[in-house]
Amino acid sequence: MRSGGGAELGRLGPSIYGDKRDVVGEVVALVDVTFKRRGLELIEARSRALPRGEIHELMITDEEAELGGRVDHVMVLGFFEVEVGGIVLVGDRVYLDGEPLGEVAGFDLTHMPNHMNIVVKVCHMERPKVGLGSRVIFKKEESTPSQANLP
User: Fold this and answer.
1) Is residue 2 part of a domain?
2) How far is Cα 77 from Cα 97, in angstroms, rounded to an integer?
3) pLDDT tier at 141, thresholds 50, 70, 90
4) Number of domains forming the structure of the chain
5) How far apart are CA 13 and CA 84, in angstroms?
6) I need a labelling partner for 128 at 20 to 30 A (CA). Which of 2, 42, 120, 147 fits?
C-alpha cells in the first residue's frame, strides 16, 4: 500500500538513506560567470540519480537554500561528466580534486532534459581552482563538518 504523496518525500530527512557509493565525475567544460539574480528554483526532492555518462552543471552559492526554494547568487564552475553513477543527496559533501568544496544545496531542472544544475553551498564565493579533467566527488554527508569552505 502506498502512503503519502510526492510532497511528503521532500520533507523526509537524510536519515532514511543507508550507505551509498560516491558519485564521481570529470570536468569537461569550464564556465566563468557569476549571477546576482539567477532565479534558480530548487526542486522539492532531496535526491537525484546521476547515471554514468550524463553531463551536469556545477555551481556554487553562499545563500541559505532550502528544498523548493529560490537561489539567486551563484557562480558557475562548469560542466562535469558522470564517470561513476549513483545517487546524490542534498547535504552530500562535494570535493573538487580532493579538496572540500561545500555541500549539495539542491537541484534545479531549468535546462532538463539537457542537463541539471547542481547547486553547492559554500561559505565564501571564491572561485576554486578547477580545470578540464578536474575530479568532482559527491560523498554521503557526515555528521561532523570539517575543513575549509564547507558550511
Assistant:
1) no
2) 13
3) confident
4) 1
5) 25
6) 42
In angstroms, the CA 135 to CA 58 distance is 12
Higher pLDDT, 11 or 47: 47
CA distance 122 to 119: 10
Residue 33 in any domain: the answer is yes
pLDDT above 90: percentage of residues in the chain: 74
Asked if residue 147 belongs to a domain, the reply is: no
Question: What cell was used for 101?
Answer: 568544496
Decide: 67 and 113 in contact? Cβ < 8 Å.
no
Instruction: List strand residue ranges (DSSP E) for the chain, in order.
Output: 23-35, 40-41, 47-50, 55-61, 70-71, 74-84, 86-89, 93-96, 99-108, 117-121, 135-139
| Residue 5 covered by a domain | no
Using an 8 Å Cβ cutoff, are 140 and 20 in contact? Answer: yes
Residue bearing cell 542534498: 90
